[in-house]
Write a structure and sequence with these properties.
This is DUF2061 domain-containing protein. This protein is 83% helix and 0% strand. With 100 residues, the chain is mainly α.
Length: 100
Amino acid sequence: MYPTHENQVEATPWRRSRLQGYLLLSGIGMLYFTWLATTEFVETGELTTTFLSHIAVAFLWVLHARLQYWVTQVAIRNELHTARMKQRLDELETTEDSGA
C-alpha cells in the first residue's frame, strides 16, 4: 500500500496510527456489545429485544469503524498522489529550466 521508491513520500505517521486506532476501536466495540448481548441472553435465557439491539449496535459499530478506516485509506492515497504530482511538476520545471 505504501510506496517503495526512494523518491516517493510516505503517508504521515499520524494517519497510519489513526488507521490502527480504527481497527482497535472496532474490535473493542464489537467485543463489548457482543458481551452485553451474551450477558443478556444468559440472564434471561431467551432472545430479547435488548439482546438483538446489542447485536445490532455491535454490527453498526464495526461498520462505522470500517468506513472510517476506508475513508482514511482514501485520504492517504490522495495525499500520496498529490505529493507525487508535485514532485513530477518540480522535475518538469527543473528540466525546462536546465534545457532553456
